[in-house]
Design goal:
Elements (H helix, E strand, L loop, with lengths): L1 H7 L2 E5 L6 H10 L11 E7 L5 E7 L3 H4 L9 E9 L6 H12 L9 E6 L9 H7 L10 E5 L8 H14 L1
Parallel strand pairs: 1-3, 1-4, 4-5, 5-6
Antiparallel strand pairs: 2-3
InterPro entries: P-loop_NTPase (IPR027417), Small_GTP-bd (IPR005225), Small_GTPase_ARF (IPR024156), Small_GTPase_ARF/SAR (IPR006689)
Function: May play a role in apoptosis. May act as a tumor suppressor.
GO molecular function, one term: GTP binding
Length: about 170
């Protein structure tokens, strides 16, 4: 059962700190609507159709401290990691950087492309993707395909483009 499905629809895992906007982002992608979300205990999953031939299975994993120890259990068959940060909350970027570095060291993610989504770009004083890229030390990941894009889950800005890019990154690996 899983074999044909996973080859047709690559697994993409959404991770990031709590309140980064992962569930809002997934709900917006899947329904086109802004949905009221609450902190994710466990995970949400959905199938995202990008075009007639391309779909992704997207896992949104809870980001609270208590959930992070379980993140590695969601990495089986992961074809791309999407790390979501709140671009309006610079105070949490050091924590995000530490968590991202830790998860990228997982053996299951060797060679897996990374997409960082700088969410909440619609908010005043949100950081630029260059600032976030430097804070997360993304340039040091020379052995990995990675991209960073700004988006707004609430407004739906940049989401479709980001997931089309993710699909392209997966095809490159």
């Amino acid at each position: 059962m899983g074999q044909t499905q996973s080859s047709n629809s690559p697994q993409v895992v959404l991770m990031g700190l709590d309140s980064a906007g992962k569930s809002t982002l997934l709900a917006r992608l899947l329904t086109g609507q802004v949905m009221e979300t609450s902190p994710t205990i466990g995970f949400n999953v959905g199938s995202l159709d990008l075009d007639k031939k391309t779909s992704l299975t997207v896992w949104d994993v809870g980001g609270q401290k208590s959930m992070r120890a379980n993140w590695r259990y969601y990495l089986d068959d992961c074809k791309a990691l999407v790390f979501v940060v709140d671009s309006s909350d610079p105070g949490r970027l050091p924590e995000a950087q530490k968590i991202l570095k830790k998860i990228l060291n997982e053996e299951k993610l060797r060679g897996v492309p990374l997409m960082v989504l700088a969410n909440k770009k619609d908010l005043p004083n949100s950081m630029t993707i260059r600032e976030i890229s430097n804070q997360l030390d993304l340039p040091s990941h020379e052995d990995r395909l990675w991209e960073i894009q700004a988006c707004s889950a609430l407004q739906g800005l940049g989401l479709q483009q980001a997931f089309m890019s993710i699909s392209k990154l997966i095809k490159k690996t």
